[in-house]
């Protein structure tokens, strides 16, 4: 079943290149129809699925919202080449083929008003000199943060769980005459914990030094993210016609959030001064650009990415009832590793007698938990937190899909890869639509990692200043493992429904 590897996404091919199927429809009406399908009548996944089926092709032309008639006064060109198979998707990772300038979230660019006037690194192409400097700077922030990352993360997660435990207890008490069950939403507590943790670990800034930022920082980031992303997302808060008119029809202004962004700017300037000066002295950035890049990596990449991904992870592992016994097996794996590491620490005379509950679950511990790691990969495969990737063809080239099809891509075409389908490609993944936590175990499982694309690159590749792969590719997986290991050190079991805990069973031994 598993192809040892696909041919390169772009190559000289035996089969002649054919025109890409699909089209953009009549001016105005075509983009409008696709926009309404995407947001309203079909939703993103059906949108891509139906068009792939209709064209009998995993590479096809379509419009991606937001689109005319409103947004950007027609300046946004919604026409893309959609790519939904594992082989063709790889073209998006090849800096020789695609230009990533200003296409982070597609043809729509919220603009530098959201980033203090700086074009931050994530919007830069690899051929722009500044990309190398800003990417190296973000990798340096991660590298420096690694020393305190695990300890700060666990401290923040403990704070979050203490708050959740208290609230759950209160709710159970209130309901004691009716039932012993209660639900506690965890998103706000999780985001507060993420914000404090990331400020310390990435920026070296302690939020307790600024009570306003400590209390409101995560809410400011939520508002800042929402204003940038809303024109491209289905929100579901308003009836759809109103959502189309008010949320998907024009760019939302940065002015609404800029006084608060400036507050975070000053916080980083004052309390993250050491990190900022590294950006200036070692990477040649101006002070303003260093701070705006720090804020983007902190707020958009890290806070935004984890805020989407960690709830998915908790929900998939915490499925009510544990029908497959996954939680029981994960708990066993986590506790075995913790016990072994505390025994060896005791034998070496470090912290003897303190037991596994007092040691930090660090990077090396979670790398010894293969089932947990494979489960984290599977959540990333099934629910990639950043589902769309974009890149503009630098030149004409031939794009190969795994159906041995070859397509003529034109210089300037905007490729739009949809990860949820590419990572459920039946040519690569057995039972592609099923959640299989053991999928990435063993030699065969390790081979599959080359098709795990959530980080804008294969899980087997490394982020580098010469590519656009997520700087935190490994840190994200390790941190996700730390969260679940933390849960099983603290609790015997937990259950999650959507974004609420419905069960937190304290550890008995
Ligand atoms: C669950 C969390 C995260 C997810 C899902 C995620 C995902 C991604 C994705 C998909 C991209 C590529 C975007 C594109 O160009 O199309 C990216 C880029 C990037 N990510 Fe992450 N990320 C996460 C966390 C982090 C963290 C913690 C950092 C901290 C340093 C980080 C730093 C970056 C940087 C600097 C880039 C830009 C790379 C470049 O311009 O070459 N990310 N991330």
UniProtKB/TrEMBL annotation:
Signal peptide: none
Cofactor field: heme
Residues binding heme: 470
Gene3D superfamilies: Cytochrome P450
Keywords annotated in UniProt: Fatty acid biosynthesis, Fatty acid metabolism, Heme, Iron, Lipid biosynthesis, Lipid metabolism, Lyase, Metal-binding, Oxylipin biosynthesis
This protein's pathway: Lipid metabolism; oxylipin biosynthesis
Top-level taxon of origin: Eukaryota
Biological process, per Gene Ontology: fatty acid biosynthetic process; oxylipin biosynthetic process; sterol metabolic process
InterPro entries (UniProt xref): Cyt_P450, Cyt_P450_E_grp-IV, Cyt_P450_sf
This enzyme's EC code(s): 4.2.1.92
First-level EC class: lyase
GO molecular function, one term: monooxygenase activity
Protein family: Belongs to the cytochrome P450 family.
Function recorded in the entry: Involved in the biosynthesis of jasmonic acid, a growth regulator that is implicated also as a signaling molecule in plant defense. Converts 13-hydroperoxylinolenic acid to 12,13-epoxylinolenic acid.
Protein's name in the database: hydroperoxide dehydratase
Organism of provenance: Eleusine coracana subsp. coracana
């Amino acid at each position: 079943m598993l192809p040892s590897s696909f041919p390169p996404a772009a190559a000289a091919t035996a089969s002649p290149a054919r025109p890409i199927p699909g089209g953009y429809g009549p001016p105005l009406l075509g983009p409008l129809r696709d926009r309404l399908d995407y947001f309203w009548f079909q939703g993103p996944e059906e949108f891509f699925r139906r068009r792939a089926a209709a064209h009998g092709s995993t590479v096809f032309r379509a419009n991606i919202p937001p689109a005319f008639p409103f947004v950007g006064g027609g300046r946004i060109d919604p026409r893309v080449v959609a790519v939904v198979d594992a082989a063709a998707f790889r073209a998006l990772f090849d800096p020789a083929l695609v230009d990533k300038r200003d296409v982070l979230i597609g043809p729509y660019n919220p603009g530098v008003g959201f980033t203090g006037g700086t074009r931050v690194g994530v919007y830069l192409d690899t051929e722009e000199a500044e990309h190398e400097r800003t990417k190296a700077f973000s990798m340096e922030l991660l590298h420096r943060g690694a020393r305190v990352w695990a300890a700060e993360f666990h401290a923040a997660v403990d704070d979050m769980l203490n708050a959740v435990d208290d609230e759950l207890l209160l709710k159970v008490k209130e309901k004691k005459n009716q039932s012993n069950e209660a639900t506690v939403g965890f998103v706000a507590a999780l985001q507060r914990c993420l914000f404090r943790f990331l400020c310390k670990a990435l920026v070296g800034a302690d939020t307790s030094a600024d009570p306003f930022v400590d209390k409101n920082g995560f809410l400011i980031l939520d508002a800042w993210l929402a204003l940038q992303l809303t024109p491209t997302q289905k929100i579901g808060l308003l009836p759809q016609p109103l959502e189309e008119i008010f949320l998907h029809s024009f760019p939302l202004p940065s002015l609404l959030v800029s006084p608060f962004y400036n507050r975070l700017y000053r916080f980083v300037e004052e309390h993250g001064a050491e990190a900022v000066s590294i950006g200036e002295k070692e990477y040649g950035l101006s002070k303003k650009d260093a701070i705006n890049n720090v804020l983007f990596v902190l707020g958009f990449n890290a806070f935004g990415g984890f805020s989407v991904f960690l709830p998915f992870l908790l929900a998939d592992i915490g499925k009510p009832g544990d029908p497959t016994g996954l939680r029981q097996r994960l708990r066993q794996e986590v506790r075995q590793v913790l016990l072994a590491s505390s025994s060896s620490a005791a034998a070496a005379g470090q912290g003897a007698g303190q037991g596994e509950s007092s040691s930090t679950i660090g990077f090396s511990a979670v790398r010894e938990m293969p089932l947990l790691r494979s489960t984290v990969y599977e959540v990333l495969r099934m629910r990639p937190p950043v589902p769309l990737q974009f890149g503009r063809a630098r030149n004409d080239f031939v794009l190969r899909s795994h159906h041995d099809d070859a397509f003529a891509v034109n210089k300037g075409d905007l490729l739009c890869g949809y990860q949820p389908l590419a990572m459920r490609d039946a040519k690569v993944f057995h039972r592609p639509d099923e959640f299989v936590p053991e999928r990435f175990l063993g030699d065969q499982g390790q081979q599959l990692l080359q098709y795990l694309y959530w980080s804008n690159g294969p899980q087997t590749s490394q982020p580098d200043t010469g590519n656009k792969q997520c700087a935190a590719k490994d840190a994200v997986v390790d941190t996700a493992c730390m969260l679940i290991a933390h849960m099983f050190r603290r609790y015997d079991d937990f259950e999650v429904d959507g974004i609420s805990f419905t069960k937190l069973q304290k550890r008995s031994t």
